[in-house]
Amino acid sequence: MILGPGVSAMKRRSMAILQMMNVTETITETIDDYVSVAVRLARDVPWRMTVKERMFANKDRIYRDRTAIFALQDFLNRVARQGREG
């Protein structure tokens, strides 16, 4: 995954995921950086394999992270209580 420039919610979420996985070298700030990373991933097989292996090794940091699940649960409980109360 390469993350290009921008400030949308989807990009911030994607950036957080990459940071949790410790794969920050594919986060770019400019279009030129994005292209450079894409070309390097395509041409530099050892580097690509290193990035891929780190993503694989750290995927549980995302899929097993209960923080977001509990936060959503708390939010939904608050909204449901507010709906009943008023």
Describe the structure.
The longest helix is centred in the last third of the chain and has 19 residues, at 67-85. With 86 residues, the protein is mainly α. The mean pLDDT is 87. It has helices at 9-20, 31-43, 45-58, 60-63, 67-85. The protein has one domain. The protein has five helices and no strands.
Major sheet attributes = none
Order of helices and strands: HHHHH
**Average pLDDT, all residues:** 87
The amount of beta strand, in percent, is under 5%
Q: Helix/strand/pairing class, anyone?
A: mainly alpha
Tell the overall outline.
Answer: elongated
What value does the Rg take, in angstroms? 18 Å
C-alpha end-to-end distance: 44 Å
Low-confidence sequence ranges: none
Number of helices: 5
The number of distinct β-strands equals 0
Q: How many structural domains can be distinguished in the coordinates?
A: 1
* Percent helix: over 70%
Please give the structural blueprint.
Elements: H1 9-20, H2 31-43, H3 45-58, H4 60-63, H5 67-85
Structural descriptors:
72% helix, mainly alpha
Gist of the model:
By secondary structure, the chain is mainly alpha-helical.
